[in-house]
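hiii, so i know i said id send this last week but things got crazy w the move. better late than never?? heres the sequnce for the chain we talked about at the cafe, plus the structure i predicted for it. fair warning i was half asleep when i ran it
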Amino acid sequence: MSAEATNPEAHPEARPELRRRGRTRLDLRRLGRAALLGPTSRDRLPDAIGHVAEAHRAHHPDADLSVLRRAYVLAETSHRGQMRKSGEPYITHPLAVTLILAELGAETTTLTASLLHDTVEDTEVTLDQVREEFGDEVCFIVDGVTKVEKIDYGAAAEPETFRKMLVATGNDVRVMSIKLADRLHNMRTLGVMRPEKQARIAKVTRDVLIPLAERLGVQALKTELEDLVFAILHPEEYEHTRALIAAHAGERDPLPAIADSVRTVLREAGIAAQVQVRPRHFVSVHRIALKRGELRGSDFGRVLVLVGENADCYAVLGELHTCFTPVVSEFKDFIAAPKFNLYQSLHTAVATPEGYVAEVIVRTRQMHRVAEAGVVALGNPYATATADAAECDEERVDPTRPGWLSRLLDWQQSAPDPDTFWSVLRAELAQDREITVFRADGGTLGLPAGASCIDAAYAQHGEAAHGCIGARVNGRLTSLSSPLSDGDTVQLLLAQDASSGPAAEWLDHARTPAARIAISSWLDAHPDRAMATTSAARAPLSVVGARGGGANAVADLPDAPVRLAGCCTPVPPDAVAGFVVRGGAVTVHRVHCAAVAQMRAVGRTSVAVHWRATADCRVTLLAESFGRPHLLADLTEAIAREGVEVVSATVEPPVEQRVRHSYTLQLPDAAGLPALMRAMRDVPGVYDVSRA
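okay and structure toks below
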């Protein structure tokens, strides 16, 4: 792959934001060589990081730049004499990474660690020296970004490096911010490497770094990384997309005129807003082309409206939908329901009288900053820690640590080897949406879209979820395999038997790595139990006892045999109706049974039926329960304690640890039926008892 294809800086149309800024790209090769000529005067910053200081002061006017000067001097001195494969002095790399972060608005500690991020890995500088000179926070971040030694880990060095980095990110998200900027600069200069190495690095970037950038909300880095990976892994599609963008540049663009119309509408409505056209990046244009086929002029960008307050966003939306024709299917409210990566905006699309459809994004300026820079825009997550939080075991709570990262940190501890960790990490990061479900105790669980009750069980209870036997979702009993939706309330039911374990089929419904790893580990440790859960379904177990006397219903049809319908099993004092069926027999149903309406519809003869004075009756009950040892014996004992005779019993094979029992019972007194059903429901594991 040529350097031109892998470096969008070589294509002005690939980086339209550079033209909009009007800022000349830094000649990092020249700056690096200048740095090698010697230190500058002690009373000012070295010229080589003057641009970093300028970008930093634009976001943080009161920042103390002296620490940046000291970090630069240490980095330049320690890297002196080292060269990159591109032929540039090595100091140009930490300078470029730091400039990327400075332009995103990173605070001083992040920039200091960025300048030093390769010193411990590639020079004689030690972590103790970094700690002594710059403090614990900078030392922690530098250590988090430092790769593990390949000589110690061999082929597992890359996955173990990412494991170490992710654990560090769980304590300080600034570690991953530097890693993303580091990978972006390396991808920009990847053209000097062999094609096979370019492809390997691009695939890791695609599978791990880009999803992490998306989850941390750093869209500015994510979009450029996507374009660079696109150019390497899909060169033909990249060139085709570049040709489409180049062809569009020579045509009339309708978006500026649409933006002018939006400005006019908002100005007349008295809404102060900044309206601009945002060109789509390469991958976005490619996706739109795949989705819509032939592209129109308005498909190459979007209209962005920036306002001051949240309420202004909805005011803008109202004006747009009043003065233009809205495309209702394109409306999304990410302000009321933010994405899990901190993103907030209103998305809509409007049709113009000329027939163009323009996508419009409405957000506040603060939302825009977070949308572009994500966690980088939040600054130091510990700067506002309260005294109370500091006193609580001296632990610092990171407000930027999202639920997906907490889940990742939990399951990585159980990953048995680097290969499992690496493959499961990629699968986890491939989940591009997240849902929030509420626990019965009022807490919340963050889960990937498509997660089931099994995933919720392991997210809430850890290994104790091995004994989960069911769940209630929004108050209704459901199977563990049931998928959850955003906003569901889930109550998980655990078995009292400590020896309970998961079924092998749970793996078919588990989506989170934590659940899959825990289930697989238990099945590996209990091979006999695992085989039992996957054995062929057994035939229903039937138990037949002595049959009791005849029915105690009497039909007003002399000498006609009478039998109680099995579909509704009427008992005294149910209101009943009888119908003559084939053979002259009278079948007795409860009056609300569905079969009664069917009988009347086909013209069956209705017969009056009344109950004998005797109180005994026969009834069929259905018991729904969770499978556990001795359940059948406990249910039979509960029935016997009520003085009821079991005529027959059928137990169906367990399905997802749920068992269905059917009992035909002879009661000495129909009045005892409610008490019998309560006694059966009180048996542990039984969650419902009903008439057949």
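btw The first strand starts at residue 274 and ends at 279. thought thatd interest u
miss u guys!!
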